[in-house]
Amino acid sequence: LTPLLPHLDHRSRGMRTRLGCLSHKSDSYNDFTAILPDKPNRALKRLSTEEATRWADSFDVLLSHKYGLAAFRAFLKTEFSEENLEFWLACEDFKKTRSAAKLASKAQRIFEEFIDVQAPREVNIDFQTRELTRRNVQEPSLSCFDQAQGKVHSLMEKDSYPRFLRSKIYTDLLSQTQRRLS
C-alpha cells in the first residue's frame, strides 16, 4: 500500500495543475495578441477592419489569413479543441512533402499524434474514417489523410467557426481595428 501513496500524491498534484490551467483559460482579445506571429502592436496596425471582416465570409478565407489563423487558434485553445486545427495544418504541410523517404515517417507521426485511438491529440472522427486512414498510412501517399482532414475541416467549419465569429476574441479584434480608424 505504501508504494501506491506517492503515485496517488503525484496524480493529485497533476490534477491540481490541470485544474489550475483551466482557471486561466479565457476567451479574450489579449489571449489572441499574445500568440500573434510577430509583434502584436505592429501586427494589428497591419490588420485592416476589412480583412478581419472578410474572415466572416468563409471559413477558408479565415484559414488562409495569417492573423485569422492565429485568432482562430487562440479561440480553439479556449475551447480545448486546438488539436483539430493542428491536425488540419499538419495535413496541409504533409501534402507538400516531396521526399518519398520522408512521406512514410511523416504519415506515421501524424497518425500517432492525431488519428490513433488514445493519440495524445486525438481528433474526433468516426471509426470508418479512422480505419481507412490506418490502411492508407501503411502505403502512404500525399492523399492518405484526405478523408480524415475533410471530416475535421467540416467539423470546424460547422461547429467551431460560427462560435468563433460570435466570440469575444473576434468581436474585440474587430472593435480594435475599427477604433484605429476613428
TrEMBL record:
It comes from the Eukaryota. InterPro entries: RGS (IPR016137), RGS_RGS8 (IPR034949), RGS_sf (IPR036305), RGS_subdom1/3 (IPR024066), RGS_subdomain_2 (IPR044926). Pfam families: RGS. The keyword Membrane applies. It is a peripheral membrane protein. Its main location: membrane. Residues 58-174 form the RGS domain. Coiled coil: none annotated. It is found in: Cell membrane; Cell projection, Dendrite; Nucleus; Perikaryon. Keywords: Cell membrane, Cell projection, Membrane, Nucleus, Signal transduction inhibitor. One of its GO terms (cellular component) is nucleus. GO terms for biological process: negative regulation of signal transduction. This is Regulator of G-protein signaling 8. It comes from Melospiza melodia. The lineage of its organism: Eukaryota, Metazoa, Chordata, Craniata, Vertebrata.
